[in-house]
Amino acid sequence: MDLELGKHNRIIFLNGTKLAGELTDIKRLGSELYSLWIDIGRQPVYISYCDVKEIVQIDNYENE
To answer: Taxonomically, which superkingdom (predicted)?
Structure first.
């Protein structure tokens, strides 16, 4: 998975919940993706990668 800081993404969780925002930080444990931080409009949100089903890059998240 090619994630880039500053890009807008829609995160779909295992429970079906969706969250969209700008990717601000990526944390890895060794070579494995561990967690993400996204900005959902001046509000940084921590996302544990083990709860993520899918990540989709989008053009704009303001209408999400």
So the answer is: Bacteria
